[in-house]
Amino acid sequence: MTPTKQHKRETFSRFMFRVFMILAGAASAAVSIELFLIPNNFIDGGIIGVSLILDYLFMSTPVLNFAIFVVILNIPFMIFGYKYIGKTFLVSTMIGIVGLAVIESSLHHVEAITTQPILATVFGGLLLGFGVGLVIRNGGSMDGTEILGILLTKKLPFSVGEFVMLINVFIFIWAGFVFGPEQAMYSFMTYYIAMKTIDAVIQGLDETKAVIIVSDQYDEISDAILHRLGRGTTKLKAIVFEVDHNAFITIMNTHETRGGKFKNAIH
To answer: In which domain, by residue range, is 141 found?
Structure first.
């Protein structure tokens, strides 16, 4: 009987490193929210966006603010996340959300860095995306809509990304009624920049190319590439179509390529 393979438990030093990175991400997001987004009436998507709108609507009630809303609104999603995704995810998410709330609250009396819309959009989006990306990369989340998307898309004909985007469309429409159409458009630009930054942080900046070739003459193409391509990809398509002009080629970007022997083999 083959013994059951046991997963290694996370070491304390590794856990503390993850906590540090999650809090660093929460700090980056908090700076973006308090010093870039709120002073310009910009929002992000998801729970953060809803919390920013509610913060604006209840600004006359100091007890109800962004920090309170972002924690309360995320609680149901954290519960679902624990049930379906696991304890580690729950702990990491709690650290990220509470860290975001505490740090954002401590910045209330700090003067806004800029009130120029374009600067607030670009740098607010970059800081927010960097922070959220760090939290996600270290096993947590600061947006319950993604958790809801993971759970609901198992029964709906949508991907998680499509579900989150659908939710955000309604959030930005709501923002248009609350802040005005111009602020809503700037908010969407901020969201787009943040999403691209999140992708870069999660996937890494070390980008390489992956190629898929579909052909009936795969043996001849494989042999030609092996012996004639060398270290460059500029000849790749020419070599393939020389052997089979009906071949199908897809070239895509990849991230975080592992394996020292092949990392620098293609330029």
So the answer is: 13-203
| Beta bridge mates, 250 | 212
Handedness of CA 21, 30, 98, 79 (dihedral sign): negative
Neighbouring-strand partners of residue 214: 248
Question: Which tens digits make up the pLDDT trace of 29-42?
Answer: 999 999 999 999 99
In a 3-state reduction of DSSP, which class is residue 211? strand
Whole-number Cα distances in Å, 225 to 96, 150, 211, 241, 248: 48, 41, 12, 11, 15
> Whose CA is closest to 127, among 207, 237, 30?
30
Closest CA to 51 of 32, 62, 64: 64
User: Mutual orientation of helices 160-179 and 46-57 as an angle, nearest 10°?
Assistant: 20
Closest CA to 38 of 136, 84, 107, 140: 107
In this structure, the answer to whether residues 195 and 232 fall within a common structural domain is no
Give me the number of domains the chain comprises.
Answer: 2
pLDDT tens readout for residues 69-112: 999 999 988 887 777 767 888 888 899 999 999 999 999 889 99
Can you read off the two tokens belonging to residue 40? 């310009």
For 205, other C-beta atoms within 10 Å of its C-beta total: 8
> How far is it, in rounded angstroms, from Cα 262 to Cα 257?
9
CB crowding 28-66: b at 16 or more within 10 Å, else e? bbbbbbbbbbbebbbbbbbbbbbbbbbbeeeeeeeeebb
- Among 203, 222, 255, the domain-final residue is 203
